[in-house]
Predict the structure of L-serine dehydratase.
Amino acid sequence: MNFRNLEQLASLSTEKGLTIGRLMLEEQSLESGRTPEEEFATMAEYYRIMKEAVERGLTEDTTSRSGLTGRDAQRVMAFGEGQELNLGQAAGEAMAYALAVSEINASMGRIIATPTAGSAGIIPGVFVSIQKRFGFDDEHMVYGLFAAGAIGYVIANNSFVSGAEGGCQAEVGSAIGMAAGALTELRGGTPAQAVHAVGLGLKNTLGLICDPVGGLVEIPCIVRNGFGAVTALAAADMALAGVRSVIPSDEVIQVMLEVGSSMPEKHRETAGGGLAQTPTGKAIMSSLRKK
């Protein structure tokens, strides 16, 4: 890739007169040796699977094999149909869609890791709800996925995207940044605004630990995806309104690396700390061992 950080990504996009998504498609094609059409078709298939996961999560039994989670997305949707959500319909749907995909993951269904399975609900939750709301076609959304991919590429090569390495900030935080930046571009924002959205989203997850109860990607992972989708919407709106990340987004990514590196091991996907070690968390783990 011809960019190593978000500043370079925004500058190169602006210099070439391309959106981040179109630039990433060009760069990906050069790196892989596949044609842009082939790369686009692959990403389009990924988006189809994301939409399928949303639909399945809203209509099928998503009870996990552990029995700990399932059908929360459907509960949120049903609640929203009966009365006005505090978030409003648009944000409420994004939250429900994110929960739906995360529940499909927990029930061993097919998802696209964006950037990981533990954070796989955030981008689909944002993208599918936004497409429905604004009537964007699939082509537009697929370019948005390339934009998200470019942002994820930068984060992965300068910090973490794995909870085992950097805590949940690395998984859910990265997904929020990817979704926020891509959404900003999908709504007509400039590359610079998209990059600011990344920093705005990431700053609010710094220090988030990875503490899955029983070592399963269920509690608290699924609800964090729901909250993450809402945070991404907020970050994109701020960026589109002209709010800047005063601390440059590349520096925020470096802080995530610093915080993750200093995080105690028990707070990095070991189920050895945090919510996993509460009395209830321990009781759940004990009951799971007996099954």
